[in-house]
Amino acid sequence: MNLNKEQQNKQNQLDKTQRKLAAARSRNDQDMITRFTEEVEKLTADLVQIQDKQKRTLTQKEREIKALPFSREITRAEQADIGQLKKSVRGLIIVHPMTKLGKGLGLNVMTGFARRPF
């Protein structure tokens, strides 16, 4: 399963469980409080694990992109016909500054990374 979908599913389960826990606390049902508290802890741990995995994947991509020897800003004209640019430059990776990867790299403008100058 996709990490984002898995994270969303776990977050939804956590929200449901927290609501059930709040209801059990209002009823003073100790058995249910214990059960839901354990489930919340388990789901929280799973979410942390998923987030760490996403961060490791993103960090690995950042290292791979930073290792490419050439990078430059993509002009507006090139942005308008990005498909043609990608076809003309083999191995071109374009990173937008508003994506997680772009924010992680500290980009301010759309940037292209490649093995050779383009």
- Please state the overall shape, judged from the principal axes of the Cα atoms: elongated
Give the averaged pLDDT, no decimals: 93
Order of helices and strands: HHEHHEHE
- Residue stretches low in confidence (pLDDT < 50, at least 5 long) are none
Helix coverage percent: 55-70%
CATH class of the largest domain: Mainly Alpha
**What is the number of helices?**
5
What is the CATH fold-level name of the largest domain? Answer: Methane Monooxygenase Hydroxylase, Chain G, domain 1
CATH architecture of the largest domain: Up-down Bundle
Number of DSSP-assigned strands:
3
Q: Classify the beta-strand content into a percent band.
A: 5-15%
Key descriptive features of the protein:
Methane Monooxygenase Hydroxylase, Chain G, domain 1, Ribosomal Protein S8, Chain: A, domain 1, 5 helices, mainly alpha, 118 residues
